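Deliverable D4.2, example record:
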Amino acid sequence: MIASVRELSRYERWYGRDEPPTVRRPVQAGALSAEVEGPELRYIRVDDIEVVRRLYAAVRDRNWGTVPPTLSNVQLDHGGDSFRLRFDARHVDSPLGVDFSWHGEVVGGADGTLAVTLEGEAHAAFDYNRIGWCVLHPAECAGRPFRARTDEGPLTGTLPLHIGPQLVVDGLPAPLFPSFDELEIGLQDGRWAHFEVEGDRFEMEDQRNWTDASFKTYSTPLALGFPHRSRPGQRFRQVVRLTVGNGARTPVRVRARRDDDCVIAIGGRAGNVPPIGLGAASHRRPPSAREADLLAAARPAHLRVDLDLAQPTWENTLNREAGTAEAIGAALELAVFVGPGSAEIARLAEALRRTGGPVARVLAFRTAEPTSSGATVALVRSELGEAARGAPVYGGTNVLFTELNRFRPEFGTPEGIAWPLNATVHASDDTSVIETPAMHGETVRSARAFCGALPLAVTPVTFNQRFNPVATGPEPEPEPGELPSQVDRRQPSLLGAGWTLASAKHLAEAGAGSVTYFETTGWRGVVESSDGSPAPARFRSLPGMAFPLYHVLADLGELRGGEILAAQSSTPLAVEALAIRAGGRVALLVANLTPARQRCRIAALPGGSVAVRRLDEQTFGRASTEPAAFRAALEPLDRSDEALTLELEPFAYLRVDTSL
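Output generated by the structure prediction step:
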């Protein structure tokens, strides 16, 4: 018997933690509008043109972890035409010895200019990789011209349309172009955004490599190496200034942006729903009979199983997960990590012959290789080809898309290319996480540009990284009561369902050949285990519950192979939708990605009767504890004409079926 869902608060149902939504306060500075969120600015715009996605100061520890600030003395003064934000911030990470404080000032002038200042001090000697301002330019800057003043002189160019690789030069990650103290980026209407920086040299990287929806201008050039060592009493000062104007840098006054209801426009064919599978549970226990029934009802196409042949337990893992795959009706997706020889691969071949069952694909990896070499792929194919029932052998990376883009695969050997994705490499706040799904599609389009017609497998997709590939020292153990770094509190939430839908939409529309999401059971899965959360005070799930994102994946499993129709949202950071034509109907999957009610009009929806199933705060309980009954209950919905208007509760997920 599952415990009562009533013990979960509204906010825990929304996004997994009992805290009210983050407040963003709109401000105006002449031509510029922005939203203040804590100590930072988001969505700096000129009229309807977004100039900066986010502007903030970061303290990154020796392992590139972001040390969050504690704020004090926060004061925001704003009138109709200018604003000033002042605050004090302190960043402390006791296990890593980080202790840094600073005073921040953000000034928006009536002339449309913006200046941000950081004046700080290190209170201890500690290792850090970055301290200072970061300016995130929206991903829509791709393909736009830029001008920069570098040490080598003036530089002009175009920001890459496909994701620009972060190459490694002399053992260190390289920026898109040399460091600078002035930068201009062309806007859509011919004006330029002009940035002046002081206190450090700044560089730019294409953050779409990590699925951030931005290009990042950051301080502390990577060419200087890392980590750096602070001195007690060491002072830091940085300033970033922004003006937006014509080529002469003259500020321009513009009208304020209006907020309208969301419109979802349904268009023509945009591909097919790919096979979608699940990852094996990291808690290493087979599912119970109830869990297996729930998982089978979601119709996963495959089960990803990681086999490190250097570990003595790999055969136990294979036997256990082959049984899981059979119980849930899924093929195996085998991620095989090989060592220097082939003896263990031969043992794996024998084990596969004994287990039987279908194999969807084999992913060939070698731990020392950021991207699979042709030799690794060829070795795995030669040893496993017959035992894996002729399944294709893919190359690629088990780390990040960054590595695939940096170390392009060798062609002629792999029969497909694979890479994983997650939402929280650089930022874990809800706003930043919601921005990442559109970049999932960009990784597919960019990979297609250098992988040709090879099938592309995105595996696995998770909220948090499964491990830290860029750590420069040991990872500290979680503090008592804290969650492991691989676990995200949004996993059992409505926001988790919306993010999953948005991710699947962009991957499918971009042409991903197959996708693997999360795990089967447990706090990194789609169904909570019968034992419940190991840390119930921090991870608020209930034993045996189906997480909201389970229903998204179950809908996609039911509609596998269906024809995708282009669905374009007028406010994609608020409402996203995926339209699928299958079985004599069009199914529209819609998610509200915000803590506010959204009114959404569906344009050009095919005629016919309409039925809807709503997963929101009110139906959360039944969807979690009686998933089969919930899924069977689509309710008729009246429509007066071809258009359909939907009212979406905060973080609601809807399935709308229209008969043809």
